[in-house]
Amino acid sequence: MKEENNNRSFFIVIFIFILMMGEFRIFSGISGMVSFTVLELAIYFGFAHVFLSLVANPLVIPAWRDAFFESKWVMLYALLAGIGSALAFVTGAASGLQAFKDVLPACLLVPLVLFLTDTKKQLWILFLLLIVLGLLSAAMGIMQGLVGWPYIFDVDVGTLGKMALDGSVLKSNVAIGFFRHPNGLGLYLVFPVVGLFMLALYVRSILFKALCVIGLFLMFTAFYYAQTKGAFIWSLVGIACSLAYLCIGKNAGRFIIVLFPLLIFSIVSFSLSSTEHTLSTMQTRYQLWQSAIHVFLNSDFKFFTGSLQFEMLRASDYYTFGKFIYPNAHNTYLNIVINYGIFSLFAFVFLFSHIILEKISNTEDKELKYIVCAIKGGIVGLLGIYFFEPAAAGVLIQAQFFALVAIIYKARSIIRNEK
Fold first, then answer.
1. The pTM is what?
2. Is 297 exposed, middle or buried (0-12, 13-18, 19+ CB in 10 A)?
3. How far apart are CA 378 and CA 369, in angstroms?
4. Distance CA 41, CA 149 (A)
5. 227-240 tens-digit pLDDT
6. How far is residue 330's CA from residue 321's CA, in Å, rounded to a whole number?
7. Element (DSSP H or E) covering residue 259
């Protein structure tokens, strides 16, 4: 009965994945109204659909319970984030709840995908869908970069503050795809690049391999027009990690856990000591990180509950000499503490460490092995760029990350059931 229901309901998952490719909002710009992305509303609609199906057929309740249990570490992260922001709200700070509004639907996407996805074929559909959507986003970005059109949203490119490779600020023809900023497009394309590379290795047809190579060229071109050098570098790191999982197997995760912080440290050190204009933004990031550390050392109770955006604004005004007054640290890990407190960061670090070290990439099922290796590499790539971008803000990029986590968990469940 559940299988028949999911064959119909799986289209909800497909619809949600499609909505992850663009920052479409409702009630945006209307005074007094809370702005929602269409994506988060679709996720809540999916939950409403599942609830009604449980009422109509209580026999599927164990499957829903299993979906939540499979995603227990994601749920723990969401729970701690919610508790921290709620406690801060009691003390009069609401900024954490505003951030929690965005992370909650992204986390809830995990059990939703687990419940509505059953088979290896459906996992392949989701895997290929993310790649195809990435190609569409890249094509849109290339058009914007070449001819300055079309922009889906009313965006003033000159106010984006995006720095070109020569150190100048871009004024026109910036690739943003279906997002509102080029960094959003860059972040979104990291996994499709890794996935397309692994797909090129998997397919046997020379024609399909050639098409994959052309697709990679399109995505790298989109990186250029978006001037997202960080996303380009970390997509290459993701490819390297995927190959490591594919070739080394169970020990790859241990190497990645050790090498990951060393790579971060090397990039930061090189950037801060370099005189290249294209790397000058690292100095500002470093100042924002200093601001966050200052806030943490002087926040007392809020270090555990978050909602530190106001304190971050004041500290960044001081450390950046009034040039970049930000409510975030331009670093996802520091931002988690700013939004939800230190315990939420511990939960997030445990979550991705568990995924990186998990040994499911050792499966003998070749199809699942390539999917798992590609997604693990994509997750590592995103975790790397998270050190330099405030990706803990907003629904879309967080939803993409947790969608990859959901596919990993579902692959693990399928592999376990096949044994």
1. 0.92
2. exposed
3. 14
4. 29
5. 898 999 999 999 99
6. 17
7. helix 252-273
